[in-house]
Amino acid sequence: xxxxxxxxxxxxxxxxxxxxxxxxxxxxxxxxxxxxxxxxxxxxxxxxxxxxxxxxxxxxxxxxxx
Length: 66
Fold this sequence. Notes:
This protein is about 80% helix and about 0% strand. The chain is an all-alpha fold. The relative contact order is 0.05.
């Protein structure tokens, strides 16, 4: 009986560890370094400037056709 109990308990421990690895550890967001934040800000700024340029070119085309 002891051997069976020991085998079952070791299998339960392994299953518990495997489930713990798969489960999310916390709801805290991932850390983003200062350099990455700056890079993301520059990319967002570039996208916004491209959007403004496209809007200006559309406005120029509309005024040219009128």
